[in-house]
Design a protein that fits this description.
- By secondary structure, this protein is α/β, with parallel strands linked by helices.
- The protein folds into four domains: 227 residues, 3-Layer(aba) Sandwich (Rossmann fold), CATH 3.40.50; 67 residues, no CATH class; 71 residues, no CATH class; 102 residues, no CATH class.
- It is built from 21 helices and 16 strands.
- The strands form five sheets. It has a seven-stranded mixed beta sheet, sandwiched between helices. The protein has a three-stranded antiparallel beta sheet with strand order 11-8-12.
- A hairpin with a 4-residue loop joins β13 and β14.
- The longest helix is centred in the last third of the chain and has 22 residues.
- The radius of gyration is 23 Å and the shape is globular.
Length: 505
Amino acid sequence: MTDWTHGYNIEQGYTYGVYREIAPDWMDVCAMLAGYVAPSENAGGTLRYLELGCGQGYGLALIASAYPQIEFVGVDFGPEHIAHARGLAAAAGLTNIRFVEADFLDLARVWPADLGRFDYVVLHGIYSWVPADLRPAIVTCLSHALVSGGLAYLSYNTMPGWAVMQPFQHVAARLHARSALPGAQVLAQTVSLFQKLKGGNAALFEALPGLAGRIDGLDQLSPAYLVQEYLHDNWTPLWFSQAADELRGAKLDFVASATLPENLLPAMLPAAVRATVTEVADPLAQADIVDCAINQSFRRDLFGRGRRRRFPAQPGAAELEVRALARPIGDSVAIKTSFGEFTIKAQLVAPVFDALEGGPQRIGTLVQGADQSNILQALILLAHAGHLAILPGMPRDAAPAQRFNRAAADAALTGAPYSYLAAPAIGSAIALRDVDMLLVALLAENPDEASLPDRLLGALDRLGRKLLRDGEPVAADGAPALAKDLVNDVFVNRLPLWKKLGAVA
Protein backbone atom coordinates (compact mmCIF):
# COMPACT_ATOMS: atom_id res chain seq x y z
CA MET A 1 0.00 0.00 0.00
CA THR A 2 1.23 3.51 -0.76
CA ASP A 3 0.97 6.24 1.85
CA TRP A 4 -1.82 8.18 0.17
CA THR A 5 -4.29 5.31 0.71
CA HIS A 6 -4.05 5.48 4.54
CA GLY A 7 -4.26 1.69 4.53
CA TYR A 8 -7.53 1.69 2.57
CA ASN A 9 -7.72 -1.19 0.09
CA ILE A 10 -8.08 0.21 -3.44
CA GLU A 11 -7.39 -2.93 -5.50
CA GLN A 12 -10.99 -3.26 -6.75
CA GLY A 13 -12.29 0.26 -6.35
CA TYR A 14 -15.43 0.99 -4.39
CA THR A 15 -18.81 -0.52 -5.21
CA TYR A 16 -21.61 1.18 -7.19
CA GLY A 17 -24.28 1.06 -4.52
CA VAL A 18 -27.00 3.59 -3.75
CA TYR A 19 -28.20 4.10 -0.20
CA ARG A 20 -31.65 5.60 0.32
CA GLU A 21 -30.68 6.89 3.75
CA ILE A 22 -28.40 9.56 2.23
CA ALA A 23 -31.21 11.15 0.22
CA PRO A 24 -32.06 14.67 1.47
CA ASP A 25 -35.77 13.87 1.80
CA TRP A 26 -35.04 10.75 3.85
CA MET A 27 -32.77 12.65 6.22
CA ASP A 28 -35.30 15.47 6.54
CA VAL A 29 -38.08 13.01 7.35
CA CYS A 30 -36.00 11.26 10.02
CA ALA A 31 -35.23 14.61 11.65
CA MET A 32 -38.84 15.78 11.49
CA LEU A 33 -40.22 12.53 12.91
CA ALA A 34 -37.74 12.94 15.78
CA GLY A 35 -39.13 16.40 16.48
CA TYR A 36 -36.39 18.52 14.92
CA VAL A 37 -36.35 21.19 12.21
CA ALA A 38 -34.93 19.81 8.96
CA PRO A 39 -32.31 21.59 6.82
CA SER A 40 -34.84 22.16 4.04
CA GLU A 41 -36.91 24.18 6.52
CA ASN A 42 -33.88 26.25 7.57
CA ALA A 43 -32.64 27.17 4.12
CA GLY A 44 -33.02 30.67 2.85
CA GLY A 45 -31.48 29.94 -0.54
CA THR A 46 -30.08 26.99 -2.48
CA LEU A 47 -29.46 23.93 -0.37
CA ARG A 48 -25.98 22.43 -0.59
CA TYR A 49 -24.96 18.80 -0.08
CA LEU A 50 -21.47 17.29 0.40
CA GLU A 51 -20.42 13.65 0.40
CA LEU A 52 -17.01 13.03 1.97
CA GLY A 53 -15.69 9.79 0.51
CA CYS A 54 -18.05 9.55 -2.45
CA GLY A 55 -16.36 6.49 -3.98
CA GLN A 56 -17.32 5.90 -7.60
CA GLY A 57 -19.89 8.69 -7.36
CA TYR A 58 -22.73 6.62 -8.79
CA GLY A 59 -24.95 6.97 -5.74
CA LEU A 60 -24.27 10.68 -5.35
CA ALA A 61 -24.82 11.42 -9.04
CA LEU A 62 -28.09 9.48 -8.94
CA ILE A 63 -29.29 11.42 -5.88
CA ALA A 64 -28.22 14.71 -7.51
CA SER A 65 -30.28 13.89 -10.59
CA ALA A 66 -33.38 13.51 -8.40
CA TYR A 67 -32.78 16.87 -6.67
CA PRO A 68 -31.93 19.37 -9.44
CA GLN A 69 -32.67 22.26 -7.06
CA ILE A 70 -29.82 21.24 -4.68
CA GLU A 71 -26.09 21.82 -5.30
CA PHE A 72 -24.00 18.65 -4.76
CA VAL A 73 -20.28 18.14 -4.22
CA GLY A 74 -18.53 14.79 -3.96
CA VAL A 75 -15.04 14.44 -2.48
CA ASP A 76 -12.81 11.38 -2.63
CA PHE A 77 -9.08 10.73 -2.40
CA GLY A 78 -9.12 8.12 -5.18
CA PRO A 79 -8.34 9.49 -8.66
CA GLU A 80 -9.99 6.46 -10.28
CA HIS A 81 -13.18 7.16 -8.34
CA ILE A 82 -13.25 10.84 -9.24
CA ALA A 83 -12.52 10.16 -12.91
CA HIS A 84 -15.42 7.70 -13.05
CA ALA A 85 -17.76 10.08 -11.22
CA ARG A 86 -16.96 13.01 -13.49
CA GLY A 87 -17.47 10.90 -16.60
CA LEU A 88 -20.83 9.66 -15.36
CA ALA A 89 -22.04 13.16 -14.44
CA ALA A 90 -20.99 14.46 -17.85
CA ALA A 91 -22.70 11.60 -19.69
CA ALA A 92 -25.90 12.28 -17.74
CA GLY A 93 -25.73 16.03 -18.39
CA LEU A 94 -25.87 16.88 -14.68
CA THR A 95 -25.22 20.56 -13.98
CA ASN A 96 -25.78 20.60 -10.20
CA ILE A 97 -22.85 18.41 -9.13
CA ARG A 98 -19.08 18.48 -9.17
CA PHE A 99 -16.43 16.06 -7.93
CA VAL A 100 -13.21 16.98 -6.17
CA GLU A 101 -10.15 14.81 -5.57
CA ALA A 102 -8.91 15.59 -2.06
CA ASP A 103 -7.59 13.97 1.11
CA PHE A 104 -9.22 14.40 4.53
CA LEU A 105 -5.91 15.42 6.11
CA ASP A 106 -5.39 18.17 3.54
CA LEU A 107 -8.97 19.39 3.90
CA ALA A 108 -8.64 19.46 7.67
CA ARG A 109 -5.48 21.58 7.44
CA VAL A 110 -6.92 24.06 4.95
CA TRP A 111 -10.60 24.00 4.01
CA PRO A 112 -10.84 25.30 0.42
CA ALA A 113 -12.77 28.54 0.17
CA ASP A 114 -14.50 27.36 -3.00
CA LEU A 115 -16.03 24.41 -1.17
CA GLY A 116 -17.90 26.57 1.32
CA ARG A 117 -20.44 25.20 3.78
CA PHE A 118 -23.23 22.68 3.36
CA ASP A 119 -26.69 21.87 4.72
CA TYR A 120 -26.04 18.13 4.46
CA VAL A 121 -22.72 16.33 4.88
CA VAL A 122 -22.65 12.57 4.33
CA LEU A 123 -20.04 9.91 5.15
CA HIS A 124 -20.99 6.35 4.21
CA GLY A 125 -18.63 3.45 4.81
CA ILE A 126 -15.70 5.62 5.89
CA TYR A 127 -15.48 6.27 9.60
CA SER A 128 -14.75 2.77 10.90
CA TRP A 129 -12.32 1.90 8.10
CA VAL A 130 -9.78 4.71 8.50
CA PRO A 131 -6.84 4.97 10.94
CA ALA A 132 -7.67 6.31 14.39
CA ASP A 133 -5.57 9.41 13.72
CA LEU A 134 -7.64 10.20 10.59
CA ARG A 135 -10.97 10.36 12.44
CA PRO A 136 -10.07 13.69 14.11
CA ALA A 137 -9.34 15.08 10.63
CA ILE A 138 -12.81 13.99 9.52
CA VAL A 139 -14.33 15.70 12.55
CA THR A 140 -12.43 18.88 11.64
CA CYS A 141 -13.79 18.63 8.08
CA LEU A 142 -17.31 18.36 9.49
CA SER A 143 -16.67 21.43 11.61
CA HIS A 144 -15.55 23.35 8.51
CA ALA A 145 -18.26 22.03 6.23
CA LEU A 146 -21.58 21.99 8.08
CA VAL A 147 -23.77 25.06 8.50
CA SER A 148 -25.63 25.79 11.71
CA GLY A 149 -28.84 23.80 11.52
CA GLY A 150 -27.28 21.30 9.10
CA LEU A 151 -27.34 17.50 9.25
CA ALA A 152 -24.39 15.11 9.13
CA TYR A 153 -24.97 11.46 8.18
CA LEU A 154 -22.51 8.90 9.52
CA SER A 155 -22.70 5.17 8.87
CA TYR A 156 -20.25 2.83 10.55
CA ASN A 157 -19.64 -0.67 11.82
CA THR A 158 -20.83 -0.91 15.37
CA MET A 159 -20.12 -2.80 18.53
CA PRO A 160 -21.11 -5.20 19.90
CA GLY A 161 -22.45 -6.80 16.73
CA TRP A 162 -19.15 -6.88 14.89
CA ALA A 163 -17.21 -8.37 17.81
CA VAL A 164 -17.96 -11.86 16.53
CA MET A 165 -16.14 -11.20 13.22
CA GLN A 166 -13.01 -9.58 14.64
CA PRO A 167 -10.99 -12.86 14.61
CA PHE A 168 -11.88 -13.48 10.97
CA GLN A 169 -11.04 -9.92 9.91
CA HIS A 170 -7.72 -10.01 11.76
CA VAL A 171 -6.62 -13.24 10.11
CA ALA A 172 -7.81 -12.15 6.64
CA ALA A 173 -6.03 -8.78 6.84
CA ARG A 174 -2.86 -10.43 8.21
CA LEU A 175 -2.75 -12.98 5.38
CA HIS A 176 -3.47 -10.31 2.79
CA ALA A 177 -0.65 -8.05 4.03
CA ARG A 178 1.84 -10.87 3.39
CA SER A 179 0.39 -12.28 0.18
CA ALA A 180 0.72 -11.39 -3.48
CA LEU A 181 -2.68 -12.92 -4.19
CA PRO A 182 -5.75 -10.79 -5.01
CA GLY A 183 -7.93 -9.94 -2.05
CA ALA A 184 -10.80 -12.19 -3.16
CA GLN A 185 -8.50 -15.23 -3.17
CA VAL A 186 -7.12 -14.36 0.26
CA LEU A 187 -10.65 -14.10 1.61
CA ALA A 188 -11.57 -17.47 0.10
CA GLN A 189 -8.47 -18.92 1.77
CA THR A 190 -9.47 -17.36 5.10
CA VAL A 191 -13.02 -18.71 4.85
CA SER A 192 -11.58 -22.18 4.17
CA LEU A 193 -9.32 -21.90 7.24
CA PHE A 194 -12.23 -20.95 9.48
CA GLN A 195 -14.43 -23.69 8.06
CA LYS A 196 -11.71 -26.18 8.97
CA LEU A 197 -11.49 -24.70 12.47
CA LYS A 198 -15.24 -25.08 12.82
CA GLY A 199 -15.06 -28.67 11.60
CA GLY A 200 -12.36 -29.34 14.19
CA ASN A 201 -14.55 -27.96 16.99
CA ALA A 202 -12.20 -25.06 17.71
CA ALA A 203 -12.99 -23.39 21.02
CA LEU A 204 -13.46 -20.05 19.25
CA PHE A 205 -16.78 -21.21 17.82
CA GLU A 206 -18.00 -22.20 21.27
CA ALA A 207 -16.97 -18.81 22.70
CA LEU A 208 -18.57 -16.96 19.75
CA PRO A 209 -21.67 -18.98 18.83
CA GLY A 210 -22.70 -16.52 16.12
CA LEU A 211 -19.43 -16.91 14.20
CA ALA A 212 -20.33 -20.13 12.38
CA GLY A 213 -23.42 -18.65 10.76
CA ARG A 214 -21.59 -15.49 9.72
CA ILE A 215 -18.78 -17.51 8.11
CA ASP A 216 -21.28 -19.75 6.30
CA GLY A 217 -23.05 -16.66 4.92
CA LEU A 218 -19.95 -15.09 3.35
CA ASP A 219 -20.28 -17.10 0.14
CA GLN A 220 -23.60 -15.28 -0.53
CA LEU A 221 -21.83 -11.91 -0.68
CA SER A 222 -19.97 -10.42 -3.64
CA PRO A 223 -16.15 -10.58 -3.64
CA ALA A 224 -16.02 -6.79 -4.19
CA TYR A 225 -18.05 -6.16 -1.05
CA LEU A 226 -15.98 -8.61 1.01
CA VAL A 227 -12.72 -6.95 -0.03
CA GLN A 228 -14.13 -3.54 0.87
CA GLU A 229 -15.39 -4.82 4.21
CA TYR A 230 -12.51 -6.91 5.54
CA LEU A 231 -9.24 -6.10 3.82
CA HIS A 232 -8.42 -2.58 4.90
CA ASP A 233 -5.47 -2.09 7.23
CA ASN A 234 -7.84 -0.35 9.62
CA TRP A 235 -11.11 -1.91 10.69
CA THR A 236 -12.55 -0.52 13.88
CA PRO A 237 -16.16 -1.16 14.87
CA LEU A 238 -17.20 1.67 17.19
CA TRP A 239 -19.61 2.01 20.06
CA PHE A 240 -22.28 4.64 19.43
CA SER A 241 -21.16 6.66 22.44
CA GLN A 242 -17.60 6.65 21.10
CA ALA A 243 -18.68 8.07 17.73
CA ALA A 244 -21.00 10.61 19.41
CA ASP A 245 -18.24 11.80 21.74
CA GLU A 246 -15.86 12.26 18.83
CA LEU A 247 -18.38 14.23 16.77
CA ARG A 248 -18.95 16.64 19.63
CA GLY A 249 -15.61 18.10 18.52
CA ALA A 250 -17.53 19.52 15.55
CA LYS A 251 -20.40 20.73 17.79
CA LEU A 252 -22.59 17.87 16.59
CA ASP A 253 -25.34 16.21 18.62
CA PHE A 254 -27.35 13.10 17.84
CA VAL A 255 -30.66 13.78 16.09
CA ALA A 256 -32.05 10.43 14.92
CA SER A 257 -31.22 7.13 13.30
CA ALA A 258 -31.51 7.09 9.51
CA THR A 259 -32.67 3.48 9.93
CA LEU A 260 -36.29 4.46 10.56
CA PRO A 261 -37.46 1.62 12.85
CA GLU A 262 -34.55 2.14 15.23
CA ASN A 263 -36.14 5.43 16.25
CA LEU A 264 -38.90 3.33 17.84
CA LEU A 265 -36.40 1.93 20.35
CA PRO A 266 -36.37 1.19 23.22
CA ALA A 267 -40.20 1.24 23.18
CA MET A 268 -40.41 -1.84 20.93
CA LEU A 269 -38.06 -3.98 23.01
CA PRO A 270 -39.45 -6.65 25.38
CA ALA A 271 -40.68 -5.13 28.64
CA ALA A 272 -37.90 -6.60 30.81
CA VAL A 273 -35.18 -5.37 28.44
CA ARG A 274 -36.83 -1.97 28.14
CA ALA A 275 -36.91 -1.62 31.90
CA THR A 276 -33.21 -2.44 32.09
CA VAL A 277 -32.38 0.16 29.44
CA THR A 278 -34.33 2.90 31.17
CA GLU A 279 -32.45 2.35 34.44
CA VAL A 280 -29.56 4.28 32.87
CA ALA A 281 -29.84 8.07 32.87
CA ASP A 282 -27.00 8.93 30.45
CA PRO A 283 -28.53 8.91 26.93
CA LEU A 284 -25.32 7.82 25.21
CA ALA A 285 -24.79 4.91 27.61
CA GLN A 286 -28.46 4.07 27.22
CA ALA A 287 -27.99 3.87 23.45
CA ASP A 288 -25.01 1.54 23.95
CA ILE A 289 -27.17 -0.72 26.11
CA VAL A 290 -29.89 -0.75 23.45
CA ASP A 291 -27.22 -1.79 20.94
CA CYS A 292 -26.24 -4.59 23.32
CA ALA A 293 -29.88 -5.66 23.55
CA ILE A 294 -30.23 -5.97 19.76
CA ASN A 295 -26.58 -6.90 19.04
CA GLN A 296 -26.27 -3.89 16.74
CA SER A 297 -23.67 -4.27 14.00
CA PHE A 298 -24.19 -1.23 11.77
CA ARG A 299 -25.52 2.23 12.50
CA ARG A 300 -26.75 5.00 10.23
CA ASP A 301 -26.84 8.07 12.43
CA LEU A 302 -27.85 11.67 11.87
CA PHE A 303 -26.11 14.38 13.87
CA GLY A 304 -27.07 18.04 13.89
CA ARG A 305 -24.95 21.14 14.25
CA GLY A 306 -27.22 23.34 16.32
CA ARG A 307 -30.23 21.01 16.23
CA ARG A 308 -33.55 22.82 16.66
CA ARG A 309 -36.47 21.26 18.51
CA ARG A 310 -39.85 22.01 16.97
CA PHE A 311 -42.21 24.21 18.97
CA PRO A 312 -45.27 22.33 20.25
CA ALA A 313 -47.69 23.86 17.74
CA GLN A 314 -45.21 24.07 14.88
CA PRO A 315 -46.20 21.99 11.81
CA GLY A 316 -43.96 18.98 11.47
CA ALA A 317 -44.34 15.24 11.08
CA ALA A 318 -48.11 15.49 10.69
CA GLU A 319 -47.57 17.49 7.49
CA LEU A 320 -45.34 14.87 5.87
CA GLU A 321 -46.83 13.13 2.85
CA VAL A 322 -47.22 9.37 2.50
CA ARG A 323 -47.15 7.79 -0.96
CA ALA A 324 -48.06 4.15 -1.68
CA LEU A 325 -45.42 2.08 -3.49
CA ALA A 326 -46.30 -1.61 -3.12
CA ARG A 327 -49.44 -2.67 -1.29
CA PRO A 328 -48.83 -5.73 0.93
CA ILE A 329 -50.56 -8.92 -0.18
CA GLY A 330 -52.29 -11.26 2.26
CA ASP A 331 -53.67 -11.12 5.77
CA SER A 332 -50.47 -9.67 7.22
CA VAL A 333 -47.05 -8.35 6.29
CA ALA A 334 -43.80 -9.40 7.99
CA ILE A 335 -41.18 -6.68 8.26
CA LYS A 336 -37.60 -7.38 9.25
CA THR A 337 -35.65 -4.92 11.35
CA SER A 338 -32.31 -4.94 13.14
CA PHE A 339 -34.14 -5.90 16.31
CA GLY A 340 -36.46 -8.60 15.05
CA GLU A 341 -39.31 -9.34 12.67
CA PHE A 342 -42.67 -7.68 13.17
CA THR A 343 -46.02 -8.68 11.74
CA ILE A 344 -48.58 -6.02 10.85
CA LYS A 345 -52.16 -7.20 10.40
CA ALA A 346 -54.05 -6.36 7.22
CA GLN A 347 -56.88 -4.71 9.15
CA LEU A 348 -54.42 -2.05 10.33
CA VAL A 349 -52.78 -1.28 6.97
CA ALA A 350 -55.71 -1.82 4.60
CA PRO A 351 -57.40 1.51 5.45
CA VAL A 352 -54.06 3.28 4.94
CA PHE A 353 -53.56 1.87 1.45
CA ASP A 354 -57.23 2.41 0.61
CA ALA A 355 -56.79 6.08 1.48
CA LEU A 356 -53.59 6.27 -0.59
CA GLU A 357 -55.25 4.94 -3.75
CA GLY A 358 -56.41 8.47 -4.53
CA GLY A 359 -52.89 9.87 -4.16
CA PRO A 360 -50.52 10.94 -1.38
CA GLN A 361 -51.97 11.79 2.03
CA ARG A 362 -50.55 13.62 5.02
CA ILE A 363 -49.51 11.61 8.08
CA GLY A 364 -51.85 13.72 10.21
CA THR A 365 -54.79 12.58 8.10
CA LEU A 366 -53.82 8.91 8.15
CA VAL A 367 -53.22 8.59 11.89
CA GLN A 368 -56.50 10.11 13.02
CA GLY A 369 -58.43 7.90 15.45
CA ALA A 370 -57.85 5.77 18.49
CA ASP A 371 -54.85 3.85 17.13
CA GLN A 372 -52.67 6.85 16.30
CA SER A 373 -49.50 5.44 17.86
CA ASN A 374 -49.95 2.02 16.25
CA ILE A 375 -50.67 3.52 12.84
CA LEU A 376 -47.61 5.78 13.02
CA GLN A 377 -45.45 2.80 13.97
CA ALA A 378 -46.94 0.87 11.06
CA LEU A 379 -46.19 3.73 8.64
CA ILE A 380 -42.57 3.82 9.79
CA LEU A 381 -42.18 0.06 9.45
CA LEU A 382 -43.88 0.03 6.03
CA ALA A 383 -41.62 2.84 4.80
CA HIS A 384 -38.60 0.88 6.05
CA ALA A 385 -39.78 -2.18 4.09
CA GLY A 386 -40.39 -0.19 0.90
CA HIS A 387 -44.18 -0.50 0.82
CA LEU A 388 -44.63 3.25 1.01
CA ALA A 389 -42.63 6.48 1.03
CA ILE A 390 -42.75 9.29 3.57
CA LEU A 391 -41.85 12.62 1.96
CA PRO A 392 -41.75 16.35 2.67
CA GLY A 393 -44.01 16.77 -0.35
CA MET A 394 -41.87 19.00 -2.55
CA PRO A 395 -42.37 18.30 -6.29
CA ARG A 396 -39.33 18.44 -8.53
CA ASP A 397 -38.42 18.20 -12.20
CA ALA A 398 -38.07 14.56 -13.29
CA ALA A 399 -36.15 15.30 -16.51
CA PRO A 400 -32.60 15.29 -15.00
CA ALA A 401 -33.25 11.95 -13.31
CA GLN A 402 -34.55 10.45 -16.53
CA ARG A 403 -31.46 11.67 -18.40
CA PHE A 404 -29.28 10.12 -15.70
CA ASN A 405 -31.18 6.82 -15.93
CA ARG A 406 -30.81 6.72 -19.71
CA ALA A 407 -27.04 7.34 -19.41
CA ALA A 408 -26.69 4.66 -16.71
CA ALA A 409 -28.72 2.15 -18.69
CA ASP A 410 -26.73 2.85 -21.87
CA ALA A 411 -23.54 2.27 -19.87
CA ALA A 412 -24.97 -1.04 -18.63
CA LEU A 413 -25.12 -2.15 -22.27
CA THR A 414 -21.33 -1.78 -22.32
CA GLY A 415 -20.89 -3.78 -19.10
CA ALA A 416 -21.11 -1.09 -16.42
CA PRO A 417 -22.24 -2.76 -13.16
CA TYR A 418 -25.08 -0.34 -12.48
CA SER A 419 -28.30 -1.64 -10.94
CA TYR A 420 -30.23 1.42 -9.68
CA LEU A 421 -32.46 4.02 -11.27
CA ALA A 422 -33.20 7.47 -9.89
CA ALA A 423 -36.83 7.80 -8.76
CA PRO A 424 -37.53 11.54 -8.49
CA ALA A 425 -41.11 11.09 -7.28
CA ILE A 426 -39.75 9.67 -4.02
CA GLY A 427 -36.41 11.47 -4.04
CA SER A 428 -34.54 8.18 -3.94
CA ALA A 429 -33.56 5.15 -6.00
CA ILE A 430 -35.08 1.86 -7.04
CA ALA A 431 -33.05 -1.34 -7.32
CA LEU A 432 -33.24 -3.30 -10.56
CA ARG A 433 -32.17 -6.70 -11.78
CA ASP A 434 -29.16 -6.48 -14.07
CA VAL A 435 -31.31 -7.50 -17.05
CA ASP A 436 -33.73 -4.69 -16.19
CA MET A 437 -31.00 -2.09 -16.70
CA LEU A 438 -30.37 -3.54 -20.14
CA LEU A 439 -34.09 -3.49 -20.90
CA VAL A 440 -34.37 0.18 -19.87
CA ALA A 441 -31.71 1.05 -22.46
CA LEU A 442 -33.20 -1.18 -25.13
CA LEU A 443 -36.69 0.26 -24.56
CA ALA A 444 -35.33 3.78 -24.95
CA GLU A 445 -33.71 2.76 -28.23
CA ASN A 446 -36.86 1.07 -29.56
CA PRO A 447 -40.05 0.48 -27.51
CA ASP A 448 -41.18 -2.44 -29.72
CA GLU A 449 -42.11 -5.18 -27.25
CA ALA A 450 -42.14 -8.01 -29.80
CA SER A 451 -38.48 -7.60 -30.74
CA LEU A 452 -37.28 -6.94 -27.20
CA PRO A 453 -36.54 -10.56 -26.14
CA ASP A 454 -34.22 -11.08 -29.10
CA ARG A 455 -32.54 -7.73 -28.55
CA LEU A 456 -32.02 -8.61 -24.88
CA LEU A 457 -30.35 -11.90 -25.82
CA GLY A 458 -28.19 -10.05 -28.34
CA ALA A 459 -27.08 -7.52 -25.72
CA LEU A 460 -26.20 -10.32 -23.29
CA ASP A 461 -24.27 -12.15 -25.99
CA ARG A 462 -22.19 -9.05 -26.75
CA LEU A 463 -21.33 -8.86 -23.05
CA GLY A 464 -20.42 -12.54 -22.92
CA ARG A 465 -23.23 -13.25 -20.47
CA LYS A 466 -26.18 -15.62 -20.30
CA LEU A 467 -29.59 -15.44 -18.74
CA LEU A 468 -29.73 -16.95 -15.27
CA ARG A 469 -32.42 -18.98 -13.55
CA ASP A 470 -31.90 -19.56 -9.83
CA GLY A 471 -28.33 -18.39 -10.25
CA GLU A 472 -27.49 -20.88 -12.98
CA PRO A 473 -26.97 -20.17 -16.73
CA VAL A 474 -29.93 -21.13 -18.89
CA ALA A 475 -29.30 -23.45 -21.84
CA ALA A 476 -29.48 -21.90 -25.31
CA ASP A 477 -32.76 -23.65 -26.16
CA GLY A 478 -34.44 -22.28 -23.01
CA ALA A 479 -33.14 -18.71 -23.29
CA PRO A 480 -35.76 -17.31 -25.77
CA ALA A 481 -38.68 -18.38 -23.57
CA LEU A 482 -37.09 -16.94 -20.44
CA ALA A 483 -36.25 -13.69 -22.24
CA LYS A 484 -39.89 -13.41 -23.35
CA ASP A 485 -41.06 -13.99 -19.75
CA LEU A 486 -38.68 -11.33 -18.44
CA VAL A 487 -39.86 -8.78 -21.00
CA ASN A 488 -43.50 -9.53 -20.19
CA ASP A 489 -42.78 -9.12 -16.46
CA VAL A 490 -41.22 -5.73 -17.13
CA PHE A 491 -44.20 -4.47 -19.14
CA VAL A 492 -46.83 -5.84 -16.74
CA ASN A 493 -45.25 -5.35 -13.33
CA ARG A 494 -42.20 -3.11 -13.44
CA LEU A 495 -42.52 -0.46 -16.16
CA PRO A 496 -45.76 0.99 -14.69
CA LEU A 497 -43.98 1.51 -11.34
CA TRP A 498 -40.90 3.04 -13.00
CA LYS A 499 -43.16 5.52 -14.79
CA LYS A 500 -45.15 6.25 -11.63
CA LEU A 501 -41.91 7.10 -9.80
CA GLY A 502 -40.65 9.28 -12.63
CA ALA A 503 -37.69 7.01 -13.41
CA VAL A 504 -38.65 6.77 -17.09
CA ALA A 505 -40.88 8.95 -19.22
